[in-house]
Specification:
This protein is mainly alpha-helical and 141 residues long. The protein has seven helices and no strands. The chain has helices spanning 4-17, 21-35, 53-70, 76-79, 81-91, 96-112, 119-136. Bound molecules: protoporphyrin IX containing FE. It holds the Pfam family Globin.
């Protein structure tokens, strides 16, 4: 699990990002789709053009869920239980894609929060996002 210092690093960066979830979320998705085009196959019903309403809304949902998870760091599994059901039973997203999204989120943070998202903060976020991903893919079989 995350150490107290890692929890603090996750939460303090979130405090910076939380005011801008749609834009940051949309950018993370855009980076995901540009760098790893195979991930677009799950979103054929979306308009994925730069700055689209769909990207903003979905980016806001994804990042919002991550922000909510930062408030439940001692209880991530139950906090993410519904989303875990959705991704495993309904969406059946290939688990490998979670690493790609986690990467895109980190690059987006680095470009927005150059000073705050230092190596320590990134390591904490990488660990946190890998827990989130593990939970969202835990019910696949
Ligand atoms: C839907 C979060 C990873 C594909 C959602 C929703 C949230 C969410 C909050 C909306 C649920 C609702 O409307 O009730 C997350 C988080 C992720 C993650 C926190 C990892 C950190 C992924 C990945 C993919 C993916 C890697 C595929 C590349 C989808 C799809 C939907 C969805 C296709 C449904 C979109 C729609 O039709 O509205 N996700 N997600 N998710 N997610 Fe994820």
């Amino acid at each position: 699990m995350l150490s107290d210092a890692e929890k603090a690093a996750v939460q303090s960066l979130w405090a910076k990002a939380s005011g801008n979830v749609n834009a940051i979320g949309a950018e993370a998705l855009e980076r995901l789709f540009e760098s790893f085009p195979q991930t677009k196959t799950y979103f054929s019903h979306f308009d994925l053009s730069h700055g689209s309403h769909d990207l903003q809304v979905h980016g806001g949902k994804v990042l919002g869920a991550i922000g909510e998870a930062t408030k439940h760091l001692d209880n991530l599994e139950s906090a993410l239980s519904k989303l875990s059901d959705l991704h495993a039973y309904n969406l059946r997203v290939d688990p490998g894609n979670f690493k790609l999204l986690s990467h895109a989120i980190q690059v987006t943070f680095a470009s927005h929060f150059r000073t705050e998202f230092d190596a320590t903060a990134q390591a904490a976020w990488d660990k946190f996002l890998s827990y989130v991903s593990a939970i969202l893919t835990s019910k696949y079989r």
